[in-house]
Design brief:
eight-stranded mixed sheet, three-stranded antiparallel sheet, alpha+beta, M1 Pyruvate Kinase, Domain 3, 2 domains, about 15% helix, globular, single chain
Length: about 240
């Protein structure tokens, strides 16, 4: 694939909040270490997401030097953070730390290439990827289902394309909604964009590191990977066509 490398890394310590760019990341069986380890819950016990509470995107989750999640620079357990969350969601909402695999809506990693982002034509943050791969032309990634990405000793399996939802319609900075974004994804990309991925072998990766794509002769093994979680606690995702 030529000079293909890791172009960017992202982590989202608090589910549905803005994330943080990284220069290095530890990849574990549950994706980027520290990703989505804190969630916002409605009083009924369901996880609240920016699909129905877009104001969550106006807050930023990060990790401090000890690995503790912060929200807008404050400890996630700070009462002031809870006040902000309740204003964004509803009275009685709460935050909790839960690192079980079912904290992910689909799979633990979302990967996108710079060629696809260029075709998308908008801020990559709307897609909320974990890994952006640079040096890939056009929409080549759309033919990678069943393949494997190798970054040093790290091996990442590619299940397929991600069905996109209403979260892509919110501007990452202003939170202004543009429904034309999801209509465009449906029209030009069949409602699916970027790659749902799972971890075969973990380790550390870094921006600038070379990426190798391998495609097996028979893709059934990678495509039949079903050990990763589905939506079990989050509020249901809205179908792209109805967003």
């Amino acid at each position: 694939m030529g000079n293909v490398h890791v172009g960017a890394l992202w982590r989202y310590p608090v589910k549905s909040m803005a994330g943080e760019p990284l220069t290095r990341a530890e990849i574990t069986s549950s994706g980027v270490a520290g990703d989505r380890v804190v969630q916002v819950y409605r009083p009924n016990g369901r996880v609240a997401t920016a699909r129905t509470c877009p104001r969550l995107l106006g807050h930023r989750g990060t990790l401090d030097a000890s690995g503790e999640p912060l929200v807008d620079g404050r400890p996630w357990s700070d009462p002031a953070v809870l006040d902000d969350v309740r204003r964004a969601v509803e009275p009685g909402a709460s935050l909790a730390r839960d690192e079980a695999l079912d904290r992910f809506d689909i799979l633990p990693l979302l990967v996108v290439t710079d060629g696809a982002v260029a075709a998308f034509g908008r801020d990559v943050r709307r897609l909320r990827p974990n890994i952006v791969i640079a040096g890939v032309e056009g929409l080549a990634e759309r033919g990678w289902a069943g393949g494997e990405l190798r970054i040093g000793n790290v091996r990442i399996g590619i299940q397929g394309l991600r069905r996109r939802c209403v979260m892509t319609t919110f501007d990452p900075d202003t939170l202004q909604q543009d429904p034309a974004v999801i209509r465009d994804i449906v029209k030009r990309f069949g409602g699916h964009f970027a790659l749902d991925c799972f971890v075969i072998h973990g380790g550390e990766i870094a921006v600038g590191q070379a990426v190798e794509l391998t495609m097996p002769d028979h893709v059934s093994t990678a495509l039949s990977h079903t050990a990763a979680p589905g939506i079990s606690k989050s509020e249901p995702a809205s179908p792209a066509k109805g967003a």
